[in-house]
Specification:
With 191 residues, the chain is mainly α. 70% of the residues lie in helices and 0% in strands. The chain has helices spanning 3-8, 16-45, 49-75, 95-123, 126-155, 163-173. The chain is elongated, with a radius of gyration of 20 Å. Bound molecules: MU-OXO-diiron. MU-OXO-diiron is lined by residues 29, 32, 62, 65, 106, 109, 142.
Amino acid sequence: MTSKKINTMNTNRLSKTICKALNSQMTKEAHAAQIYLAYGSWADANSYQGISNFLFRHANEERNHMMKFLEYILERGGTVSVEAIPAPGPNPTSVFDCFKKTFEQEVDNTEAIYKIVKLSFDEGDWATWNFMQWFVKEQTEEETLVMNMLDKIKIAGGEKASGESLYSLDRDLASTDDEAELARNKTVEAP
Ligand code: FEO
């Protein structure tokens, strides 16, 4: 192969559509990080230290997700476009509202992930399809984690949860694992 041919060789392995979808997902993950930062600050200002730390740790996870998309686009020879991150929106009005909004945001993110999975399937872009499987599992984990939190708050009284029950919830959260246990890891012996 002549050097001229090498220079003009197309090394981009992503279609225009997939590249655009990956870039907007990258921004979406950055947006999720901003939301967790905002809610974490709200929780801290309302004296929920455990909840605040949990949300701040999660903001970091979202930044890591953003980075995974960025690295993948580069790895496949695509063009990264770093765009403005939308504002996180209004603060929660209560602990229940905080986790309700968090859950809705995770479901919205899952739907965006599924769309890219579908796109990659339709295009037969198996590298992207394979890359996205990590996110499919991650979203199941994140939804489960927040769902478990919501269940605990509901048991404590939801919007009407007493200061005392929110205090113990906040304290428990300080020592709660950030990873949810998925059904696929369960057995009859260890349900
Ligand atoms: Fe990166 Fe919470 O999804």
